[in-house]
Amino acid sequence: MQFSYQARTQQGDLKSGTIDAVTKEAALDALQRSNFLVIAINASSGNSLISGGLKFFRRVPRKEVVIFSRQIATLFEAKVPLIEALKTMMEQTSNPMFKDALLDIAKNVDAGAPLSKALAGHKRIFSGFYVSMVHSGEVSGKLEDIFQYLADGLEREYYLIQKVRGALTYPAFIIFGFGAIGFVMMVWVVPNLTVILKESGQELPFLTRAVIFTSDLFSNYWWALIIGIVGFIGSIFYIINTPQGKATWQRVQLKIPIFGKMFQKFYLARLTDNLSVLIQGGLPIVQALEITADVVNNGVYHEILLQTIEEVKKGNTMSSVFRTRKEIPVMVSQMVFVGEESGKLDNTLKSAAAFYQKEVTVVMDNLVTLIEPLLIMVLGVGVAIMVMAILMPMYDMAQNF
Q1: In this predicted model, what pLDDT tens digit does every residue of 191-231 receive, in sequence order?
Q2: Which residues contact 282 (CB under 8 A, 6 or more apart)?
Q3: Which helix (H) or strand (E) holds 2?
Q4: 153-401: in CATH 1.20.81.30
Q5: Reduced to 3 states, what is the DSSP secondary structure of residue 249?
Q6: Which has the minimum average pLDDT: 2-16, 105-119, 308-322?
Q7: Any idea where the domains of the chain sit in the sequence?
Q8: Which single residue of 15, 128, 142, 178 has CA 20 to 30 Å from 257?
Q9: The dihedral of CA 69, 72, 74, 79: what is its sign?
Q10: Beta bridge partners of 283
Q11: Could you tell me which residue, 232 or 283, shows the higher pLDDT?
Q12: Does domain 62-152 have CATH number 3.40.47.10?
């Protein structure tokens, strides 16, 4: 249930907002724990079904967690107590869901719960990787260092994901634009141009007849085409979200021409970076491999890590497994071997992660550079087909007159 409130801070500033709680008393208690002097609190008006629906769609962007990790690491470095640090972060965030989560976390920590357990209650925001790292910091007494590792690691992954998304969004946007322009041409422009050709009675070239047929199809059955396209895309997404379909897609990802190498480098960067952060944070190698397997988000590398876990439990090395898998480049298995031999596995994995992050960036830049002339060529071919199919017959007809 949601409650709206008016309260004053310890500095005397007037503050208003909303808070989620089971009862009015629970909401009042949560606000008082945050050192607010509550002036008024009432159940929010409005349709609870709509509010519930809006809450379902609320989410905390990855960037919010990155900023939180960096700033709380800075507050720890300044020797700010944990409860005060959480309250400070709660005041600074503008995301309602994240603000409510931090309020709940601060309340639980104030009641005596470990920070890792409080974070674990919000799995939609903090991953198992994040919670395990914080737990490791609590056990080792190096929570400040752990948040520094988390902030660095999450920032690297965030910017890498943004780079990949940006590179894939550009061609998708251009292709969508070309498709929209082609649809408009076929539905409104081509019929007006070809009406004269149809009425002339002359025999039309095959290419012209093909364009006219396509235009008629778009004009008369545009609704069926839209339903078909939406249904096809929806079916693809549905299949990909099934366990078997997801596993198949994740394997296919690594074999797509041009993009396959990019995806491989991306997952290798994620695997080596997460593993290095976990080992650097003091987690045992088996536990670090288990957490990395859960967050790598690719079935192929998940399977490789599970195989590695079994071999490590038997007393074998990580590199002995990596050498046998073609999805792991020789360079990675060799670097892991050197790290195992020298006792500096976290450093060698960190170096491998930095290398593949740079490789992904280079591939992205080259891909964007390559796509521009390629799309221009496709557009030129499309324009040439239109000219040959429509304008040339009209020119021939004018010549006959």
Answers
A1: 877 777 777 667 777 888 888 888 888 888 888 888 998 99
A2: 136, 139, 140, 142
A3: strand 2-8
A4: yes
A5: helix
A6: 2-16
A7: 2-57, 62-152, 153-401
A8: 178
A9: negative
A10: none
A11: 232
A12: no
CB atoms within 10 A of CB 385: 13
Q: CATH topology of 62-152 equal to that of 153-401? A: yes
The per-residue pLDDT for 41 is 80
**Which one, of 51, 137, 55, lies nearest residue 97 by Cα?**
55
Q: What is the pLDDT of residues 153-187, one digit of tens each?
A: 788 878 877 877 777 777 778 778 878 887 887 88
Neighbours of 150 (CB within 10 A): 24
pTM: 0.66
Provide the token pair at 68: 């939180």
Tokens 């550009």 locate to: 170
Q: Which two tokens stand for residue 34?
A: 């945050």
Whole-number Å distance between alpha carbons of 93 and 102:
9
Could you please report the per-residue DSSP string of 46-102? S-HHHHHHHHHH----HHHHHHHHHHHHHHHHTT--HHHHHHHHHHH---HHHHHHH
Architecture (CATH level 2) of domain 2-57: Roll (3.10)
